[in-house]
From TrEMBL:
Lineage: Bacteria, Pseudomonadati, Pseudomonadota, Gammaproteobacteria, Moraxellales
Residue stretches making up the Enoyl reductase (ER) domain: 1-246
Single GO MF descriptor: oxidoreductase activity
Gene3D superfamilies, per the entry: Medium-chain alcohol dehydrogenases, catalytic domain, NAD(P)-binding Rossmann-like Domain
Name of the protein: Zinc-binding alcohol dehydrogenase family protein
Length: 259
């Protein structure tokens, strides 16, 4: 659908970006599904990379006209699938010189999601000196992370971020040879098939339980296995919603936390 919309107005903290590349995420699909029939045009789009053409009166001094930037947008404002986009300058960053504008547009939302899942929900913590697990009992104790759906956007970023954590074994799932090869290239220590019984495959690797589980797709398919595959007081994070109600009492016997 091609429509004409007004040129955006820059709020004080905004910049106006000439959009050069975007990416499409599952979040865009969910936003589209929530759209009501109100005869109003809604512009979708989270991820944008482009060039600053206008700067608001209170925008960050880190940026100037002509800078190439990338960002994940604000769900409460018009999206980035347009020619010119207004965005708060506090949400943007310079595109690294080492990557293309197209690659830059593919990074923001999946990277932020992976970061928040690992470091804010699953209690992996970054300090000023290094990456370390926040452990109350033994800071040197090896830990394990299972990423269900490691070849997708968030899974791909989660593998790379998790490999920065000392003594954290990263196990991921993939069901095809090409996706398995991709996860291995990104640094996964072990790869198992999510179309088969996950608990059995973990046991074959020597892991009766894992410490952390990150679910990147189809959480309904794996929920019944979570209590068996996760250690007591372990943590589970799903980045996608359930399609059906689940019995969270299954997690209580091990005092598992779900995010």
């Amino acid at each position: 659908m091609d429509v004409q919309i007004p040129y955006p107005e820059a709020l004080p903290h905004d910049v106006i970006v000439k959009v050069q590349a975007i990416s499409i995420n599952p979040a865009d699909t969910r936003a589209r599904c929530r759209k009501t029939k109100d005869n109003q045009t809604t512009v979708l789009g989270w991820d944008v990379a482009g060039t600053i053409v206008e700067i608001g009166s209170k925008a960050s001094g880190k940026f100037k006209i002509g800078d190439t930037v990338y960002y994940a947008g604000d769900i409460n404002r018009s999206g980035g699938n347009c020619a010119y986009h207004a965005i708060d300058s506090r949400l943007i960053a310079h595109v690294p010189q080492s990557i293309s504008i197209e690659d830059a547009a593919a990074l923001p939302l999946v990277s932020l999601t992976a970061w928040e899942a690992l470091f804010e929900r699953l209690s992996v913590q970054i300090n000023t000196n290094h990456v370390d697990l926040l452990l109350e009992d033994d800071e040197n104790q090896p830990r394990s992370l299972l990423v269900i759906g490691g070849a997708g956007g968030v899974g791909s970023m989660a593998i790379q971020l998790a490999k920065l954590v000392p003594q954290l074994t990263v196990i991921t799932t993939a069901s095809r040879q090409e996706t398995s090869n991709w996860c291995r290239k990104l640094g996964a220590d072990h790869i198992i098939d999510h179309t088969q019984d996950i608990t059995t495959q973990l046991a074959q690797l020597g892991y009766s339980e894992v410490d952390y589980v990150l679910i990147c797709n189809s959480p309904d398919l794996y929920f019944d296995q979570l209590s068996n595959m996760t250690r007591p007081f372990g943590k589970i994070c799903s980045i996608v919603p359930f399609s059906y109600p689940q019995d969270f009492n299954l997690l209580m016997k091990k005092s598992l936390s779900f995010h």
